[in-house]
Amino acid sequence: MIDFYPPQKGEYSPYFDSYLSLNPNKNFSELIQSQVEEFRLFFEQKPEAWADTPYQPGKWTPKEVLGHIIDTERIMTFRALCFSRGDQNSLPGFDQDPYVLNAKFGAVSLALLLEDFEAQRKALLTFIQTLPKESLDHLGTANGSKITPRALFWIIPGHFIHHFTILKNRY
C-alpha cells in the first residue's frame, strides 16, 4: 500500500493549488484506485453515443476528456521519473489542445481508452512503490516552475477530479 503525505507550499507552483485543493484527505493508493472504479462505472452508465458528444460546439467530447486525462498523467509521471532520478534538466510545458487534436481519441474505442486509463494508474502505483521515499522531495523544473515528484503525483488525482466534475455537471 502506498501512503505518502500531500505536498507542502513551495513544492509546486501556485497554479496547481486548484487541483491539489480538490483532493480528499485519503490514502494516495486508495484514492487512485477508487477513481478508476468510479470513472469506469460512470462511463458504463452512459449511452454509447454520449462519449462522442461534446456538451457544446468547440468543447471536447467525453472520450477526448478521458484521453486528455491519460496524456496529462503520463506527462506528470514522466516528470516525476526525471526528477526522482535527480535529473536537473528543465522540462517543457505542453499545450493540451494540440495533444487532444492530434490523438484523434474519437477513433479509439471507449473500452480501450478506459483500459488505457486503468493501465496508466496501475503503472503509476507500481512506479511509486519502486521509489526511495527521499526521492519524492527532489526538486526539478517543469514548464518554468519548481516542482517535486510528490507534488506531481498528488496533482494527478486533483486534475482527474477537476475534469470528472465537469463531465458530471456539463455533459
UniProtKB/TrEMBL annotation:
InterPro entries: DinB-like, DinB/YfiT-like. Residues 37-164 form the DinB-like domain. It comes from the Bacteria. SUPFAM superfamilies: DinB/YfiT-like putative metalloenzymes (SSF109854). Gene3D superfamilies: dinb family like domain. This is DinB superfamily protein.
